[in-house]
Amino acid sequence: MRSLRKDRHMARRPRDADDALFTFQLSRATAEKITVVAAMLKSVAGALASLIVLGLLITAVFL
């Protein structure tokens, strides 16, 4: 319990400019990585959806 109070107190301390800038850059890099992964997943999902539609069309033609 005591460590929780200490952590909360440390979280409230004002940060200096360098610390804040580093945190901003780190979160920005993380956001860029998330954006790249999301774009890759979107393209994979699109390719999978088009394959499914193509398979359904082929199935409909041959049945």
What topology does this entry show?
Layout: H1 2-12, H2 17-62
If you had to describe this structure to a student in words, what would you say it looks like?
- It is rod-shaped, with a radius of gyration of 24 Å.
- The chain is built from two helices and no strands.
- With 63 residues, the chain is mostly helical.
- The longest helix has 46 residues, at 17-62.
- It has helices spanning 2-12, 17-62.
- The model has no long low-confidence stretch (mean pLDDT 79).
- It has one domain.
Measure the end-to-end span: 68 Å
Number of separate structural domains: 1
Query: What fraction, in percent, of the residue positions are helical?
Result: over 70%
Q: Quaternary state, please?
A: single chain
Secondary-structure element order, as H and E?
HH
Overall geometric form: rod-shaped
What structural class results from the helix and strand content?
mainly alpha
Overall average residue pLDDT: 79
**Unreliable stretches, pLDDT < 50, 5 or more residues?**
none
The biggest sheet amounts to: none
Portion in beta strands = under 5%
Number of strands: 0
